[in-house]
Amino acid sequence: MAHTIKEKAKLLARVRRIRGQAEAVERALEAELGCGDILMLVASMRGAINGLTAELIEDHIRHHVVNPDADPDADRARGAAELIDVVRTYLK
Amino acid sequence: MAHTIKEKAKLLARVRRIRGQAEAVERALEAELGCGDILMLVASMRGAINGLTAELIEDHIRHHVVNPDADPDADRARGAAELIDVVRTYLK
Amino acid sequence: MAHTIKEKAKLLARVRRIRGQAEAVERALEAELGCGDILMLVASMRGAINGLTAELIEDHIRHHVVNPDADPDADRARGAAELIDVVRTYLK
Amino acid sequence: MAHTIKEKAKLLARVRRIRGQAEAVERALEAELGCGDILMLVASMRGAINGLTAELIEDHIRHHVVNPDADPDADRARGAAELIDVVRTYLK
Asked: What is B5-91's CATH number?
């Protein structure tokens, strides 16, 4: 995991944002905010988790399977690039 | 929101568990655990968010739309019960 | 189900579009198109199913639970309108 | 696409099942079945699409990126196997 310092910092920033969103939902429940507002907070937390997941999978492909920008085998590099596109489409 | 003390306690327990899962992902990233392990932690956090969402929507239906166990209109009560089943199916 | 003629026509148009998308995926597999292209067809079929689901749930709420535009109880009407917004957010 | 005759046959069987499910939803709408029943048909069609997607992505990884059962580089083979596990977890 955490393949470059920059990637690690980005992933940590994402997960800390999700923790902050969970804390906001907790405060909203304690303050008995409206259901609709709480559900919108939870929906945005779910979106953030999808974004984190897509980035983790992309980093995994690049560092532990095939890096599309560096692999000497052009077919394999293209296959990995397509795979990253698919992951982004499904988790956006 | 938070329609009965018991429901509020259950929702708070769910969201605190999600916050704890976010903290576990953060520690796993800092400790540079394997990608596969981190992705499994994130997948279980996503499952917990789906569970929280389903419970919030169900509580919203019961308290702000139609309570299937108490509505005097039998058709409407059945419609609300079916709706709760559908929400559970889609978010399980 | 199928609460007004207009709604029924819209739902049928959506499901026929999904059937057409399944047929396009079938032809693409038979013609041995690239994986990336086939996965994009499948992703758009999944989006169409989410749209159909959201419309079915919205129609169900309007006709079998509470119609937010016609219910005499203002709180319940607002609760149903919020619920429809949530369903759209989660399935868009 | 369609990397072996056996895989192609399995994918075609999956997509034909999805087309059949779309036809069943169409008939159910025309016959004005209950909303709850129609939504359950649509939910099972969505499950079938997730299964097709997972299989397409897995076949893509095996044939166009890295085959975990045949790659001479053990680290890369393990990375690809973990990736396939993650895809199955997210799309099951």
From this structure: 1.20.58.1000
